[in-house]
Amino acid sequence: MQDTLARADSVYRVVIPAIDSDAVYGRDSLTFKLVAGPHWLHLVNDTLVGVPVNANAGDSIVTVAVIDKKGITVQQSWKIVVIPVILPPTPFQLFSTFHSDSLTIDYGKDLVLQWQPSHGHDPGDSVRYALKLWGGGVDTTINGLKDTLFSSLAMMRKLSIRTPYRWTVSAMVDSGKSTLAKDTIYFVTTGTVLSVNGQNPLMPKDYIVYQNYPNPFNPSTTIRFGVPKESKVNIAVYNIIGQKVAELANGIFASQYYDMVWNADRFSSGVYFVVVKMESTDAAHQSFNAVKKLLLIK
User: Which of 37, 104, 154, 240 lies at a CB distance of 3.0 to 4.6 Å from 41, suitable for a disulfide?
Assistant: First the structure.
């Protein structure tokens, strides 16, 4: 017998090749006995059958004895190699941490998102989560989370008023296999922004855009700007030849100071320009534009 392969969670079936040359009229009269083998393997007449699992992965020696009516015994031994099946983590769902589908932005509180735990199928599997939140000019993914609860003040401060957002989570095990949550949660921010003490936050007197810091930078820099009254804000980054390479914000912002981070990890060294356009949502439609020069050095 040659060595054979078995796949975890699949039926392994092998017929023992044996013929009794002394049988009358060519009819075999042999008895088969499983002398040695893994516990998941069974002998039915002349056929070995069984279903290994991932825990059985590796090599096992099988020995089968073949006995004819005269008591003559012949033993055959060979190796079974069980190949494990790499499975993704178990399914899971998200929890809605808001009382409704709406959220009031509060700069004194963390944005809290939570989900059910997912588990690996193999002993020792560790599960890591990746959280993705997008909408209103925000598209953020946070990888390598160990816990099933995410709490972040910085994430709360990225949100804009009266803007729809979605978030979901994927779970990954050590093998790289992943499972996406069964659902995606949708919410809309209200038109109110609260500060640490629950009152309206201090408002800038005028539109303003500060020089990015640090500058030069590698790989990320922060652009701080002030909005004196509710306004539509668009922030984009352009390269030296005028091509738009990134959009950092595009939505309605309440009166407040904001810090917008640009991560230029995938961009090459050089001069870039951040263009900020703001226009009030009231009847005056007051507008403001600013351009700042950024220097990326790697």
Answer: 37
Task: Say whether both 214 and 282 belong to one domain.
Answer: yes
Reduce the DSSP state of residue 211 to 3 states and report it: coil
Q: What does the alpha-carbon distance between residue 120 and residue 94 come to, in Å, rounded to a whole number?
A: 18
Return averaged pLDDT per consecutive 10 residues of the chain, 298 residues in all.
Answer: 88 86 62 93 93 90 89 89 90 83 84 94 86 89 95 86 91 92 91 58 80 91 90 96 94 87 94 97 94 95
72 with 98, same domain: the answer is no
Please report, for the domain that includes residue 139, its CATH number.
Answer: 2.60.40.10
Q: Report pTM.
A: 0.52
Q: Is the separation of the CB atoms in 249 and 277 below 8 Å? A: no
Check: CB of residue 27 under 8 Å from CB of residue 41.
no
Q: Which residue, chain included where needed, has tokens 């009030």?
A: 280
Question: Does any domain span residue 107?
Answer: yes
